[in-house]
Write a structure and sequence with these properties.
Elements (H helix, E strand, L loop, with lengths): L3 H8 L6 E4 L6 E5 L4 H20 L1 H18 L1 H12 L8 H17 L5 E6 L2 E9 L2 E5 L5 H14 L3 E5 L5 H11 L8 E3 L4 H9 L5 E5 L2 H11 L5 E5 L4 E5 L5 H13 L9 E7 L3 H13 L19 H16 L3 E4 L15 E4 L6 H4 L6 E7 L2 H8 L4 E2 L1 E5 L3 H8 L6 E4 L14 E2 L2 E2 L4 H6 L2 E7 L1
Parallel strand pairs: 5-6, 5-8, 6-7, 8-9, 10-11, 10-16, 11-14, 13-14, 16-17
Antiparallel strand pairs: 1-2, 3-4, 4-20, 9-19, 12-13, 15-18
Helix pairs in contact: 1-4, 1-7, 3-5, 4-5, 4-7, 5-6, 10-11
Length: 468
């Protein structure tokens, strides 16, 4: 077991570093190390040298190591959750810090458990052909600040399982969380199998173009994803990109507002809205529009927001000032355009931390910036529609398509609507419920490649056909 103090001592800068402050209080958490491109070069070289022996262990041995790594996360779970709460801002309770650390351990075990046997493509008198998946080499992983530990594991666990080594570049907002997670994992992993390089944009750009990095996994904005595509082109690097969302939810007229209200709320406001596959815009049929708005407002009023280390809170601050400003400006623009602020929309002027209140915005046009842009925060626009065709057209009207949801008392009707939505995942009567067994990836400009499950493992391997 690792204590919080031990964990912080293991990852904080020993010399000059970059101060990381708690977004809920402004208090100093620690100084994070600032690694350089030279540090990255050393990490890639070490990972490249370690990869053949790691791959040679085989699937069974790597499975055993990943399960022991999950045990190590469980043993240090409370210290990891406390650091995550202080650095990212999310509360300990609810679907937040403890949930994220537990999810990291669960995803490690899931990646270890999947079977990936050679696929027999042809076996007849003419011969036999088998499809195998071999290690790629070194995987570069670039992660976000919203779920820094969980998404790091989504990247590193399948990569390691497939016999690759990993070099990670965390967000500059949440480097301590990823460094701490790696420190715990490296108690179990062989030397140089996993490296974390905590640097700036120059480190990320070098990683994505590096000739000794065979694949990049990235979760973040579409704009940054496009830059990675360009920088990776000269080395024809494999890519898995999970990019911007702006997910739509459609409530059909037969839905029960009271029955779905809490699930709608968490579909939108999990991690205080700072989730790629959170519901960012909600389309509700005019017949039940007012009832849904009222039911959502009642749920919002019951959800306490505050400092994450207070055990009573389930919503926290925005992680950084830039994101706070985006949310605040979009809500103000909606107010100025005549939209109705049902709850929230009035942050306290002199409060410490980047708290923006849970905000529901009704009677808003579909082309309002709060709807058309991914706000990535605790503000949900609710748009009225009259026909299902109209709702589907509005849901499909943007150039992104990570996830979506349909809400109805009739699952057959919901499935018919779901099939018409342009998104990588469409949930019915829930939103954002990812599962390590179920592949996940985006449509349109929300990225490409799949994560999770056996298909996710395949995307971390090089396909090879053996025919004889």
């Amino acid at each position: 077991m690792t204590t919080y103090s031990d964990l912080l001592a293991a990852v904080a800068a020993t010399g000059e570093g970059r101060d990381i402050h708690d977004p809920a209080t402004g208090d100093l958490v620690a100084a994070a190390p600032v690694h350089t491109v030279d540090d990255l070069e050393k990490a890639v070289a070490a990972a490249r040298a370690a990869q053949p022996s790691w791959a040679a262990l085989g699937h069974a041995a790597r499975r055993e190591v990943l399960n022991r790594a999950a045990d190590a996360v469980d043993a240090s779970a409370e210290a990891l959750a406390e650091l995550l709460s202080r650095e990212q801002g999310k509360p300990l309770n609810g679907p937040n810090a403890r949930f994220e650390v537990g999810g990291a351990a669960a995803w490690l075990r899931a990646a270890a458990a999947f079977d990936l046997e050679p696929e027999v493509l042809v076996d007849d008198d003419g011969g036999r052909a088998e499809l195998h998946f071999r290690p790629l080499g070194v995987v570069g992983a670039i992660g976000p600040w919203n779920w820094p530990m969980m998404i790091s594991v989504w990247q590193l666990a399948p990569a390691l399982r497939m016999g690759n080594t990993v070099v990670m570049k965390p967000s500059e907002y949440t480097p301590l969380s990823v460094l701490a997670l790696a420190a715990v994992l490296n108690q179990v992993l062989p030397a140089d199998v996993l490296h974390v390089v905590s640097g700036g944009r120059d480190v990320g750009e070098t990683l994505s173009a590096h000739p000794d990095v065979d694949k990049i996994m990235f979760t973040g904005s579409t704009a940054t994803g496009k830059a990675i595509i360009r920088s990776s082109a000269d080395t024809v690097k494999r890519l898995t990109l999970e990019l911007g969302g702006n997910d739509a939810g459609i409530v059909l007229p037969d839905a029960d507002p009271q029955a779905i209200a809490e699930d709608l709320f968490w579909g939108a406001f999990i991690n205080t809205g700072q989730t790629c596959a959170a519901m960012k815009r909600l389309y509700v049929h005019t017949d039940i529009y007012d009832d849904v708005v009222t039911a959502l407002a009642d749920v919002a009023a019951r959800m306490p927001m505050g400092v994450g280390l207070d055990e009573t809170n389930v919503l926290g601050p925005l992680q950084n000032k830039a994101q706070y400003n985006i949310v605040a400006n979009l809500v103000e623009a909606a107010r100025d355009a005549g939209a109705r602020i049902v709850v929230g929309g009035n942050p306290e002027a002199e409060q410490p931390g980047y708290f923006y209140p849970t905000t529901l915005v009704a009677d808003i046009d579909n082309d309002n910036p709060l709807v058309a842009q991914e706000q990535f925060g605790p503000a949900l626009p609710i748009i009225r529609y009259s026909t299902v065709d109209e709702a589907v057209a509005m849901a499909n009207g943007l150039d992104v398509g990570l996830g979506a949801s349909v809400w109805s008392s009739d699952k057959d009707a919901a499935r018919e609507v779901a099939a018409r939505i342009q998104a990588g995942t469409v949930w019915i009567n829930k939103h954002g419920a990812v599962d390590p067994r179920v592949p996940f990836g985006g449509a349109k400009q929300s990225g490409y490649g799949l994560e999770f499950g056996v298909e996710g493992l395949k995307h971390l391997g090089a396909p090879q056909v053996i025919s004889y």
